[in-house]
Specification:
By secondary structure, the protein is α+β, with helices and mostly antiparallel strands. It has helices at about 5-10, 30-50, 80-90, 95-110, 140-160, 165-170, 175-180, 230-240, 245-250, 255-265, 290-300, 355-360, 385-395, 410-420, 445-455, and strands at about 115, 125, 135, 200-205, 205-210, 215-220, 280, 305, 310-315, 315-320, 325, 330-335, 365-370, 405, 425, 435-440, 460-465, 470-475, 480-495, 495-510, 520-525, 525-530, 540, 545-549. A hairpin with a 2-residue loop joins strand 18 and strand 19 (about 480-495). The longest helix is centred in the first third of the chain and has 25 residues, at about 140-160. The protein is globular, with a radius of gyration of 24 Å.
């Protein structure tokens, strides 16, 4: 079957006239702004309901060379998508419009937002969310789970080593100057006891599916990873949108994540406190992820505090309450290293608490994630992670890396500069889609300017081949169109390591874009990880439409 025939069937009913709603409108916190957004949502919904149907032609959904999550290269629906595909074909436009309107209003009322710094009109926006979930069969997830567990265990051992005896550096597995010269390496962390050697308690690794259908790790996030609240919000939205399909599909739940996070945090102080007091430390309401900080604190049932709420006395940390001060045992910090303690790090910081790091060094409080974890997710250190896994665990990496060129090495630098039109170049310490060049999509002037920046500071850049991220169906401009996606699962590490059976699927909503970050115009969708049935994975297609047992 050719792809256009598959798409005519795919859009037989509702998908011929699906709607595009204003998912990217500005969000003000005042009631007037909320009413404006609600009116905009209602207006766009009514416009689409009244609009003529759009025929689903070959142009409406035509995957390119990238692996497509729903369709095989022959145009067949992958078997684990069959139930969702069938359900989508039965829904009418008005019903879809109502569900989309409910979703938008739900996100609005819950304050599910993110902040774009430097935006001209407004910085706070509703998270753009696609209705159609991404589905991952059980056998694929089993490999992802094993690979992420292996990876985080090795990275925690690496952190314990480089802040201890530094054996891996003496053995020359990772260049000493690369680690000790990294901006995120914290000499203050040397020889500090960390319970369970769990430096990174919350990790959000970014995975991509390559053109051969296999998953690989694009980068690790061990500092202050965000996005888990959007994973939970997307799940709630998907359950409302496709309730029957969700129940019948055997989707593994993610709702226990707050409980698992709290248990992980408490395990970090369980050796010396029977019932540790946990708090979430936030930079405040103006932070881009403040919604997530407040959301997780509420779901865990723990206080949300700012630096000014904490006081350190005799190397003990306390929080101010309406009934007096109360001791704090574990701090889940959502504040970058530099701002934790003005006495140890940046002296102009007002986001942390003076003396906090001394209390941590004395063993009277636990900071999660530990300061200095960022050196393990440095984009240059990333190139050595397979060697790190082999060094500490004696195993080959289950999930491979993407080929990476280090501009700090002159030979590789020359290769990168000669092929900028083929590479994605990233600053080693940047995040959020900033400080990067996507060579094939950049103009010649942009490439020339970036080349000068690389030459001026080659140690600060790495390059990777442009990878065609896999695509998944999304509602775009009234059509079902493929958009590139990645996958951010969340791993917890304390007394034990737990991979949450779900993930945040990030979507590059701009046509042809490979940048999925919300700050760069990306959105998200729910991720359904299917449970095993009777010891067999349910419905994984091997690429030709048949079902793997």
């Amino acid at each position: 079957m050719r792809i256009y025939a598959a798409n005519v069937e795919f859009g037989a009913r509702a998908l011929r006239d699906v709607l595009e709603l204003g998912r990217r409108g500005p969000l003000g916190m005042a009631s007037k702004a909320k009413r404006n957004v609600e009116k905009s949502v209602a207006a766009k919904t009514q416009t689409l309901v009244d609009a003529p149907t759009l025929p689903m032609t070959e142009a409406a959904y035509l995957p390119g060379v990238a692996y497509d999550e729903m369709f095989t290269p022959e145009g067949e629906v992958r078997s684990h998508y069959d139930p969702l595909h069938a359900r989508m074909s039965t829904l009418g436009a008005e019903e879809l419009a109502g569900r989309q309107r409910t979703l938008e209003r739900s996100f609005l009322l819950q304050g599910i937002t993110f902040t774009v710094y430097g935006a001209e009109n407004t910085t706070e926006r509703i998270i753009p969310t696609d209705l159609f979930p991404r589905i991952i069969p059980a056998d694929e997830w089993k490999r992802i789970e094993a690979g992420l567990t292996q990876r985080l265990q090795a990275l925690n051992l690496f952190l314990a080593d480089i802040y201890g005896d530094q054996q891996i550096l003496m053995d020359g597995v990772v260049p000493r100057e690369l680690v000790l010269g990294a901006p995120s390496y914290r000499r203050e962390m040397q020889h500090i006891y960390v319970p369970h050697k769990a430096y990174a308690n919350v990790c959000g690794s970014d995975l991509i599916r390559c053109q051969d259908g296999q998953f690989a790790v694009l980068e690790d996030n061990l500092r202050v990873p965000s996005g888990v609240s959007y994973m939970l919000a997307n799940r709630d939205a998907a359950k409302r949108t496709f309730p029957g399909t969700y129940r019948a599909a055997g989707v593994r739940p993610v709702e226990r994540y707050p409980d698992l996070l709290l248990a992980t945090l408490k395990s970090m102080a369980a050796d010396w406190r029977g019932d540790p007091q946990v708090v979430v430390l936030t930079p405040g309401v103006y932070n881009s992820a403040y919604y997530e900080h407040a959301y997780l604190a509420r779901l865990m049932g723990v206080p949300l505090v700012e630096g000014r709420d904490l006081v350190v006395h005799e190397n003990m940390v306390y929080m101010r309450t309406t009934t007096g001060i109360r001791r704090v045992d574990v701090i889940y910090r959502r504040v970058d290293d530099d701002f934790i303690d003005p006495l140890t790090f940046r002296r102009d910081s007002s986001l942390g608490a003076a003396g906090l790091f001394n209390a941590y060094r004395a063993g009277n409080v636990v900071i999660c994630n530990a300061p200095g974890t960022g050196v393990a997710d440095d984009k240059a250190v990333y190139a050595y992670v397979p060697d790190i896994i082999r060094y500490y665990l004696g195993e080959d990496a289950i999930l491979p890396n993407i080929e990476t060129f280090l501009c700090r090495e002159s030979r590789q630098l020359g290769h990168v500069l000669d092929n900028l039109d083929k590479f994605v170049v990233k600053a080693v310490g940047a995040s959020g889609g900033y400080g990067m060049l996507v060579g094939p999509h950049a103009s010649q002037k942009e490439r020339d300017d970036f080349a000068e920046a690389i030459k001026a500071d080659p140690d600060n850049y790495i390059a990777q081949p442009t990878i065609q991220l896999s695509t998944a169906p999304c509602l775009v401009d009234g059509r079902i169109e493929p958009r590139h996606v990645d996958l951010r699962p969340f791993i917890l590490s304390g007394e034990k390591t737990i991979v949450t059976p779900g993930a945040l699927t990030r979507v590059a909503l701009k046509r042809g874009s490979l940048v999925v970050n919300s700050s760069q115009g990306g959105g998200s969708k729910d991720t359904w990880v299917l449970a095993e049935e009777n010891g067999h994975s349910n419905g994984h297609s091997n690429g030709n439409g048949s079902v793997r047992p």
